[in-house]
Prior knowledge:
Two copies of one chain form a homodimer. By secondary structure, the first copy, chain A, is mainly alpha-helical. Chain A is elongated, with a radius of gyration of 19 Å. In chain A, helix 4 (56-76) runs parallel beside helix 7 (124-147), helix 5 (86-101) packs across helix 7 and helix 6 (110-118) packs across helix 7 (124-147). The longest helix of chain A is centred in the N-terminal third of the chain and has 26 residues, at 3-28. The N and C termini of chain A lie far apart (59 Å). Chain A has a domain at 56-193: Tetracycline Repressor, domain 2 (Orthogonal Bundle). The first copy, chain A, is built from nine helices and no strands. The interface between A and B is large, with 55 and 54 residues.
Amino acid sequence: MSPRHSLAEAARTRDRIVGYAVAEASRVGLEGLTIGTLADGLGMSKSGIVGPFGSREQLQIEALDRAGGIFRAAVIEPVAGLPAGPDRLARLIDAWIGYLADCPFPGGCFVTAASTEFDGRPGPLRDHLRTAVTTWRSRLSGEIAAARVESAHRSPDEAATVLIGISMAVNQEIQLLDEPDAAERGRAAMRAAVGLPQ
Amino acid sequence: MSPRHSLAEAARTRDRIVGYAVAEASRVGLEGLTIGTLADGLGMSKSGIVGPFGSREQLQIEALDRAGGIFRAAVIEPVAGLPAGPDRLARLIDAWIGYLADCPFPGGCFVTAASTEFDGRPGPLRDHLRTAVTTWRSRLSGEIAAARVESAHRSPDEAATVLIGISMAVNQEIQLLDEPDAAERGRAAMRAAVGLPQ
């Protein structure tokens, strides 16, 4: 095998491990990820799993980053080219509800689950998660401010809290309660919360 | 020791184990609860921990029930004697935000965390949780309907989704983001969502 070939091979292996870890962690939690389960699931040795990352924690961090990238690709990127305004906010809501209804993670919204899992566990993973959530909150507040629509909420920050909350409730209604009308109700609730017409 | 005395003693032991399990599970998750950690924390043997419950799962179910009782005592019971209407809904919101801000669980809202932890794990715990969440949703919808206030949301069910969502977002802002104004913003957001004056 040429060196270039083996580098590409190493990158593919790393990618495959992270992809599997994201799916697995969405069901059992990031803390529930065990090297043994990943090794079994991927037909690899335990040292083959940990090796590329150096530690289980680094693998968890990369799984979290990958999940963040999947969220951005599903919710933020599709509207990135549109001019800011109510139409872009409405499309962002549609993309967000679509992501929750047809979730790319088998166990439901990854970041919501990781948030309740790690909020009480100080360390690099919690710090990482906190940065990801804060960045998304600011972006969403900016999006709401730029749309300049009137609503019952007093500030874009307050409306951002409400939209993020609705996404969490919809995730629960879909994943735990199996409610068939959760997505439609969530979309209507989000539009009403930011003053968009139904 | 008389039989009555030993019965009382057994009840106290059971109570102490469940109380410790609730605190521990609010930090590490219900699945993260290990008999070994409980035994170490309580200075008991592992068989002394499992014995009263018969299984770890039964202990997890009792911890979930206990957490539900703590939530009801903090949020529902304080308003139970008031006549239904906007004032009772406003007080329920105050009690709910108070519960989130001064959380009786060290790791934040227990049921929210358990929900994302168990939504992808079929079994008695998920069923139990689902019943608890469904019961609370119905009660909250009834409370909103009885208050007869006008809001941007089209139905009491939609408004219940929004309030439950805001409680989850506030829990994240307090537990993960350490935001000092999370409780006040959450209270304002909840009042606005159901059409109560600020």
